[in-house]
Amino acid sequence: MKENKEWMKHFTEDLKKIENAQDAATPSRNQIMNALMERKKARRQALKRELIVFICTALVIFMSYVVIAFKLPKVFLWIQGLALATVPIIYMVERKRRNESAEVAEIDDGV
């Protein structure tokens, strides 16, 4: 019987610790507005980057069509070679940018 009471006491203490750890502080209005503004700014930057990539892709397709239409195979081959050389560079830069922005913020749990 005594063991059961001790176990129950430890169990209730552990439950209280868990409840205290789960209590999250309500963010203030300023914190929410700052987070919203940062998210909007990041979304605007992403939109600009996507627009630039779209325009560059459209120009490459158009230039390829012009080169083929005027039957300039040497220029076409040079453009393709330069594109193959720059794709890995673009990939590495984008991967580095995504890794830096995917950092997890440190959480203060009040302990």
From TrEMBL:
Lineage: Bacteria, Bacillati, Bacillota, Bacilli, Bacillales
UniProt keyword list: Membrane, Transmembrane, Transmembrane helix
Domain of life, source organism: Bacteria
Matching Pfam families: DUF5345
InterPro entries attached to this UniProt entry: DUF5345
TM annotation in the entry: 51-70, 76-93
Protein name per Swiss-Prot or TrEMBL: Flp pilus assembly protein TadB
